[in-house]
Design goal:
Layout (H helix, E strand, L loop, with lengths): L2 H10 L6 H14 L4 H13 L3 H10 L2 H4 L2 H13 L3 H14 L4 H13 L3 H14 L4 H13 L3 H12 L7 H13 L7
Helix pairs in contact: 1-2, 1-3, 2-3, 3-4, 3-6, 4-6, 6-7, 6-8, 7-8, 8-9, 9-10, 10-11, 10-12, 11-12
């Protein structure tokens, strides 16, 4: 089995019962080419999924420079910094991640989360817009985009987005309805439909 297949296998095996299998697959993939960053970053991502931010951050800092500056490592660093309440640091790392991985919706969504956390809703809405363009079926990204559109006074767009989401069974969750209520309340005069 090739290294890329092992990394993909590891990513697909992340669950409580298969965590050790995933870690083993990424370690095996890393052994195929010690200069390849993907398996090492994937191993660190598994640690973050378990909630271990300290070990993940230490592992990222221990990577050689050429691995630490890859798009995947920058994305993971941004995610760790978001989880440890450093949104400004996360924003910098995620800007670099998006530049390196422009086709990855996850990077744009994380960039949007960081921009929102540092008080830049317009930039956050733009980042979520790119994430939705790349993954239109991701309802969470669409919900976040809708909420942010309302914050930048694009109420009609926000309303259309959130109504479309709530029109789908999987989009009928409390957060979406709360966002929808906020949008209705933001109209002058407030709307009730």
């Amino acid at each position: 089995i090739g290294g890329a297949d092992q990394v993909a296998s590891a990513s697909g095996q992340v669950s409580g019962a298969s965590q050790s299998l995933a870690e083993g697959a990424t370690e095996q993939a890393a052994g195929l080419d010690p200069t390849w960053a993907a398996p090492r970053v994937a191993t660190l991502a598994l640690q973050l999924q378990q909630g271990d931010t300290e070990t993940t951050l230490a592992g990222l800092r221990a990577l050689p420079d050429e691995m630490r500056t890859t798009g995947a490592a920058e994305l993971l660093l941004g995610q760790v910094l978001l989880a440890t309440d450093d949104p400004a640091g996360a924003r910098v790392a995620l800007d670099r991640a998006v530049a390196a991985l422009p086709g990855l919706a996850e990077a744009h969504a994380a960039q949007g989360e960081a921009a929102e956390a540092v008080g830049e809703p317009a930039l956050a809405a733009e980042a979520y817009e790119r994430a939705v363009e790349l993954e239109p079926g991701n309802l969470e990204n669409r919900r976040r985009r809708g909420a942010l559109l309302a914050r930048v006074d694009r109420l009609e767009d926000a309303l259309a987005e959130l109504l479309e989401i709530t029109g789908q069974p999987e989009g009928r969750d409390p957060e979406t309805f709360i966002d929808l209520g906020r949008v209705y309340g933001s109209f002058e005069p407030p709307r009730v439909e």
